[in-house]
Write a structure and sequence with these properties.
Elements lengths: L9 E2 L5 E2 L2 E7 L8 E8 L4 E2 L2 E3 L3 E7 L2 E5 L4 E4 L4 E4 L5 E5 L5 E8 L8 E3 L5 H5 L2
Antiparallel strand pairs: 1-3, 2-5, 3-4, 4-12, 6-13, 7-10, 7-12, 8-9, 8-11
């Protein structure tokens, strides 16, 4: 057993996020047969991801603020602290904070066979798509 070294907080790139979003990596695979990845992700008010999907799905556990998650079918789900949302493998979705509050969630997923394509990033979410929240 050992205590893991803290990895510095990084700001997520504008190609994949609109607004200010920071990530703290918490768990990463240590050897070849491990796949679990966990990160604490913090969104400034109004910030959001671009459309994306995960090869093996994703769990998102909200720890602070109000989160909105949208899918291609136009449905938007509001999630509060203590609630966990599951997104199935390959399902396009986005995550966003409300306009007037910070939002934080834990992102829990497994790397794909090729970790470089675990997450497939797509186009930015439009104001119209987000406006339904």
């Amino acid at each position: 057993m050992d205590i893991q070294q803290k990895v510095p907080t990084v700001k997520n790139p504008p190609e994949q996020f609109a607004g200010d979003v920071w990530v703290d990596p918490l768990v990463a695979p240590r050897d070849g047969d491990q796949r679990t990845v966990v990160a604490k992700v913090r969104f400034a008010p109004g910030a959001r991801t671009a459309w994306h999907s995960h090869e093996r799905g994703q769990f998102l556990h909200v720890t602070e603020g109000v989160a909105y998650f949208g899918g291609r079918d136009g449905r938007i789900i509001e999630v509060h602290p203590g609630q966990t949302l599951y997104t199935p493998p390959g399902e396009d979705h986005w995550h966003a904070a409300g306009e007037d509050t910070f939002m934080e969630h834990l992102a829990i997923l497994e790397n794909g066979d090729d970790p470089a394509v675990t997450t497939t990033w797509k186009e930015h979410v439009t104001d119209e798509e987000l406006g339904r929240a």
